[in-house]
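2024-03-11 09:14:02 INFO queue: dequeued item glycine oxidase, len=371
2024-03-11 09:14:02 INFO validating residues
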Amino acid sequence: MKESIVVMGGGVIGLSCAYELRRRGHQVTVLDIQRCGGQASGAAAGMLAPYSENVEGSDPFFRFCLESLRLYPDWQQSVKEISGQTFEYTNSGSLYVAYHEADLLALEGRLMWQRQFGSSGRILEGDELFRLEPQLSRNVRAALHTPEESHLYAPHYVKALEEACRRLGVDIYENLEQLTVVEWRSKIAVRSKEGHTFRGDRLLVCSGAWAQELSDTFGIQIPVYPIRGQICAYAVDVKPVQHMVFGNQGYLVAKENGTLVCGASEDVAGFDTSVTERGIERLRKWNKAMFPFLADRIPFHRWAGLRPSTLDGLPLIGAADGTNRVVFAVGHYRNGILLSPATAMLAADWLEGKPISEDYRAFLPGRFSHS
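2024-03-11 09:14:37 INFO prediction written
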């Protein structure tokens, strides 16, 4: 049965969910208090790197991230075809560097379990490493090379997602300033600041860090908080960095548009998206230690976005109660771009009442509430 679904939030998660739901034949309305893609989505570096960014082990979150990476080739091609727009999607592979013997041992341990999940990675040292990445500092002892990882240009991806949604017939309302859920137990009614009411059969909450404001409405704890991520970019004439390069203090990734993106300096600053000298200088210090050619360069662009973080680091994806009338898809922290296709499919399955893998019940939004 096809239904009318209201999606609160027009970031990459909200747009991806709307896109998937519309492809399944549902009537979809997206509501955003600002502009679509205006916070964490548009500010992201666009890395699709579950092996490099989830280093602790093969928990359900890592497996979810890996599933999403594997969905990307077909997903991004579909978005391009339906939107009529293009965006950079590059299978660059990644390097995770080690400066000391202890760091190298950690990389070797990580590689052992990641190979069980499809990684063809190898530890590279010496001439072999510097042939792959010639500008890398010679202070780097070794690096874990993971060919499977990719990246995309997030601002263009989000714009293409929005256009794909519009072409499929998704209704999108922006700059609504404030949204209030006034009815949700039998039908859905969401009211804007100006008093317009949007109605539907089901509600999908994708409002990032703002989802915490709905705790009283639904009677559950929604501990999603904004973490400010500051990023900078250098203008480069030729592509000086061939891979996504990670270390324990950040990352660098070169884009087709002649920029080298470096991030991310993180802090707790509420909903403040201003850029600080301290945050950018921390990045610059780390950047030039990794790539000495950056020592005398000044970033031409600096920006910040709000990343929705949860208390346990896992997203909230699933039904708010037993009816599946209200489903959450929030709290993706720094993995929103990577997780957009897998989250879209999981959220759509929740809304349609389909069976859900036991793995993904770790993401249930009610897990922080006490009876």
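2024-03-11 09:14:37 INFO annotate: The domain at 4-76+154-224+313-368 is CATH 3.50.50.60 (FAD/NAD(P)-binding domain).
2024-03-11 09:14:38 INFO item closed
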